[in-house]
Amino acid sequence: MTRLDYYRIARATSHIAWWTFVTTVLLVGATAAAGPVTSTARDHFDCGPRPPARMTVCLWAVSRGDYFGLSAMLPVATTAFVLLLLAAITEALIIGRLVPGLITTATPILAALIIITTLKRIDWWSDAATSARALTFIVAAIAIREVWANRLAPRLRDEAPETPAASQD
Question: Which pLDDT value is given to residue 12?
C-alpha cells in the first residue's frame, strides 16, 4: 500500500469515528436528560460538578445505569473517540507537518470536550432558551471539527509524477 492509501484510510476512519462518537454521545446525553429508570441509575448519573477533563469519567459512570437500554452506547462512544484520535495522529504523521498535525489531533479533542461539557451542564427541559444555547454550542463544536477536517487541514495529494501532455500533431 502506498502512503496515499494509508492517508485515505485514516481520513475515512476519522470521519466514521467522529460521527459515531457524536451520535452516541448525543443519544446518551439526551436519554440521560430524560431521567433515569431506577434510583440506582440516578446515583450513577449524579456526578456533581466536574472539570471538563473528567466529564468522560462521569459519563462513563452513566453507562452503568439502565437508561432506556442505551447503557451500551457509552463504550461505543469511547471506542469511536479512541479510533478518531488514532486516525488523526496517523493522518498527522503521514502529512508530516508539525503545526497542522497538532491542530488535526487537537481539533476533535476540543470539539468533544465542548459537546460533553454542554451535555453535562444543561437541563434540556428547563426552557427553550437553554436548549437553544446548548444546541448552539454542540453545533459549533461539530463545525469546528468539520471545518478543519474538510476545508482547512492540509491534504496529501497523489504523489505519482505527472505525465507530460501528449502533443497534438
Answer: 95
